[in-house]
Records
---
Amino acid sequence: MAGRVWILLACLGIILAGCSVGQTAVPTQLPTVAVLPTEVAQQPTLLPTATFAPLPATQTAVPTSTTLPTVTPVLSEATAVPQPTATFAAYGVAQTIGTSVNGRPIESYRFGFGSQTIVLVGGIHGGYEWNTIILAYNMIDYFLANPDQIPANISLYIIPSANPDGQYVVTGVDGRFTPADVSGDIRPGRFNGNQVDLNRNWACDWQAEGLWGDTVVSGGAVPFSEPETAALRTFFLREQPAAVLFWHSKADGIFVGSCDGTFQPSAEIAEIYGRASGYTVYSEFSAYPITGDASDWLATQNIPSFTVELKTRNGTDWEMNLDGVLALLDFYGR
Ligand SMILES: [Zn+2]
């Protein structure tokens, strides 16, 4: 090592002396190589990656737009850890978290990059509960226009349509739709492409045959047999949310996620949402036995969760749910 230093010093001496050897022996790139490490050392965190290059300046005026997916980079699951930048933080980050039986993407939209994760899920019962999907998209639009409502320590994920095959059956549309797109008998839209009820396919009190009122429905061959529920499970286990909310319709109330007994963390946040929104909070859904429920399974994973049943089949109860979501953000935010 010392020998190399002496050689370097000797060469430096030669260069400084203007030795003619320097014209051929010193690489022409030497000055550049000497400068680069200094630049890198000064701004190591600002080097953009190929995946998360800053959005072009022309896109910074978009928060009032309702066309979220076209202005945000769509990320594959393999690139699902965004690097926060000032520009990025102001926008929803869309990513595909899985694929339905018939190959439709299940999209998630992220707001904020905090360590506390809150997840809002619409449409697990597909087109049969299409108003929950509209509500979720409305919520996405709200946080696009009001990114300052996301506390610094929060990551808010909104999955607007957890059962896109069921949505398509009723609307004939992938992605965003309007109530005018809804037609025909909406009941078949409850199920996925395998005719499974996705909220009977989770591993809490699971049975192959579940109930929907008096109707027997398929809970799948085994828990998480369906690609939609498997994708959601993977997402939840990876993100370890502080809270998860599922929107359904139309039982008009909040139902606490718990598996065979009370899970107090779920009850606590359900009460917070209930007080802010005005929905009545129920410890469990008692109209008929529920098997394989998503919110109940989350309790087995120590993840607080609850279900919000909208009042009607076609309204969004917008103000109530916005107040509830903002209360959750306030509870977890700092
Ligand atoms: Zn439902």
---
Amino acid sequence: MQRSFLFPLFLAVALAATACGSPSDDDDASANAEDGPTWHQDIAPLFHAHCVHCHSEGNIGPFAFDDYDEAKVLSQWIGNNIRQRVMPPWSAVASDTCEPPHPFKHDVRLSQDEIDLIVDWGRRDAPEGDPATAAPLPAPIDRELEDATHRLDRGSTWDIGTADNGYFCFVLDPEFDVPHWLTAAQVVPDALDLLHHVFLYLVPPEQAAEVDDRLGPEGSFECFSSIADDGFQPLVMWLPDSPPLRLPEDSGVRAEPGSRLLMQVHYHAWRETGGLDQTAIDMKWTDEAPAREARFEVVGSNQPAAVVTDAPFSIPQELNQHVEELQTVVPADVPASRLWSVSGRLNHAGSGLELRSGSDCLLSVPEWNLDWMRLYQYDAPLEELPPLSGGDPLSVSCEYDNTWANFGLRDVLEAEGHDATFTMGLGPGELAEMCVGVLGLVDDVP
Ligand code: HEC
């Protein structure tokens, strides 16, 4: 079974929330409407800045939050959702035990004041306000990489099919005959109503033939977790609200001649309409070596030789909040570097992740969500970023919920014909686990 049942569920929950919520528990609703927040004056600009690029006609999110009538019907439900900080999707949240050294760039979260305002608006029965004095709406998010040097696509339109929630990989060949360095990239999305995320990995020349061979006759192969299973460097982790990726100034990720790019696309086909897609990727490459080399390193359960643990990795059946803590090191060949970007990866049983260097917290994800991974970029000058070099100790601590109550896990178990969870180990595929961090590093040279 796939997640196509979600849409009716959304509607049922939304309507139930509306039916038992409003306005009876707000007797003062209309009386105070004049003084409180209104759609045109306060709420529409917030929804345009944080929600509408996903929640509008032709985009991936259910419902159109650029439509007053639709937002009004759902206003109390939206309030509950954002109060719990489920939306907008953003997982890097400091906890009592782990607070990263810097804030992150492009943080899409609502502030507490904005959340309070939207909740208050819902409680007052979502007044519309006066369109004549509407507050200006922010510009749509910038999706273009104006200075791209290359656009790569898979050569033909891809038929997504209607059945499922699939992960597909496409192989792109940049056809380099000398080394090149990637300095910027951005996804050029096509089927925005079905694209959940797009990741781009760099495949070294030694593995090019292997990925070429995995391609089926339709020009793709199903792939789930190239990040740890194959050990490829992730270059781009795109969600529909992601701005272009730019590597730190005067730096680039080196690609040897013969390299391939692996584009992994997650299609979220809950609309059951299927569709065609021609998503491409814009990139800025240079064949002049930049002052600093940049690289992404994947650390944790993919480095069996480096990891030290007390016991073999094993997540017991029907256990929630099970923690595996892996002690490892930055790969030996990494020169003196600064850490500018962090991420991590768990599978469906994952529920939390912390990445540390010694006692310093680098990334805290208290509520892991496989659907919404990002490359989080520290918002600080290079010289203030955490220094890291080959051999430095790291710990990746991963928490799992291996119970039937874990909705995302249950969904996949059922699809594979299981009716209970089982003890899970490390491995490839959707019903095994991993525990990895991603380090975005840049040479620490003048
Ligand atoms: C990056 C795209 C994206 C952004 C930005 C986004 N959403 Fe969503 N939202 C989704 C998708 C996709 C779903 C469907 C469930 C899923 O796939 O996780 C969803 C589901 C929801 C739901 C119902 C889900 C539930 O389980 O409770 C609500 C309510 C919601 N979003 C509100 C918002 C609001 C309000 C904002 C802005 C403050 C926002 N979203 C921003 C993509 C987005």
